[in-house]
Specification:
Radius of gyration: 13 Å
CATH topology: Transcription Regulator spoIIAA
Helix content: 40-55%
CATH architecture: 2-Layer Sandwich
Number of strands: 5
Oligomer: single chain
Strand order of the largest sheet: 1-2-3-4-5
Length: about 120
C-alpha cells in the first residue's frame, strides 16, 4: 500500500509505502508518481519517502525501486529524505539498490532525526 501527500504550504511531498508491493501496485505507484511530480516544481519541494513499514522487496520489483530512486535524484528536490524500513532485510535491500544507482538522498531512521538537523 502507498500514499502520496502534497503540502503546498510547507513545500513537502510525502510518499508513504508499506507492506509488500505487488506487480499491479508497482505500475499504479509509478503512474501516480509521474502524475504527482508533474503537478509540482520539484526544486521548490522537499521529498520525504517514508518506508518505515515496508517489508522485504520482491526480487522482481527491485528495478522499480531503482527507477524511483533515480527519478528522485533527476528531479532535484531541495532535499530527498528516505525514512528507513524497520525490517533489517528491507533496509539492507534498499541500501544496496541505492548504492547501485548512486542515489544521493539522505537516509534516516525517523523523520524526527532529519528534522533535528
Amino acid at each position: 500500500m502507498y500514499k502520496f501527500e502534497v503540502d503546498d504550504k510547507e513545500k513537502v511531498l510525502r510518499i508513504t509505502a508499506e507492506g509488500f508491493f505487488k506487480n499491479k501496485e508497482s505500475t499504479a505507484f509509478m503512474e501516480t508518481l509521474y502524475e504527482t511530480f508533474g503537478s509540482i516544481q520539484a526544486t521548490e519541494y522537499d521529498l520525504i519517502v517514508d518506508l518505515i513499514h515496508l517489508n522485504v522487496i520482491k526480487q522482481d520489483l527491485v528495478y522499480l525501486i531503482a527507477d524511483a530512486l533515480k527519478l528522485y535524484d533527476e528531479l532535484q528536490f531541495r532535499n530527498t529524505v528516505i525514512v528507513n524500513p524497520i525490517s533489517i532485510l528491507a533496509k539492507i535491500q534498499l541500501f544496496n539498490i541505492a548504492r547501485s544507482v548512486h542515489f544521493s538522498g539522505t537516509f534516516v531512521d525517523s523523520l524526527e532525526e532529519w528534522q533535528a538537523r
